Description:
CATH topology of the largest domain: Glutaredoxin
Strand order of the largest sheet: 2-3-1-4-5
Number of helices: 7
Number of strands: 5
Shape: elongated
Largest sheet: 5 strands, mixed
Helix content: 40-55%
Strand content: 5-15%
Number of domains: 2
Distance between the termini: 24 Å
Radius of gyration: 17 Å
Amino acid sequence: MSTTFTSxxxxxISALKAKYPDPKAAIMPVLWMAQKKWGWLSxxxxxxxxxxMELPYAHVLxxxxxxxxxxxxxxxxxxxxVCTNVSCMLRGGEGLYKHAQQRLGIGHNQATSDGKxxxxxxxxxxxxxxxxxxxxxxxxxxxxxxxxxxxVLDACH
Length: 157
């Protein structure tokens, strides 16, 4: 697998870097771009990001390791996040997470053997008024029940 950005992607990275007084401030959107392209941030991908950002690999690794939104191992095509923080917990988030574990047969930050799903228990998704909340990739679902979770998972192809 090639871990190089295309010329169009490099142009986008240059545009991102130009938005900030210090170009290294663009590290998070560039990491996000890399994750979207390759699915996760392998050592080779992070080295490519370091190269195009003209930053030490250790800096890129530090940012990628600090934020849980960046995957350091392959995850499923459909990444399911279930919030279990206070509001969601009080409205059934923990039961929803346990249901997802049983339904998918995996635990926290694990992927199914076919690579279709991965599961993550998350702290806060910022929608306490719509608790409990789940997300599949970048689509968010508020006031989610076990039946709604099943319907969302069934709709994933």
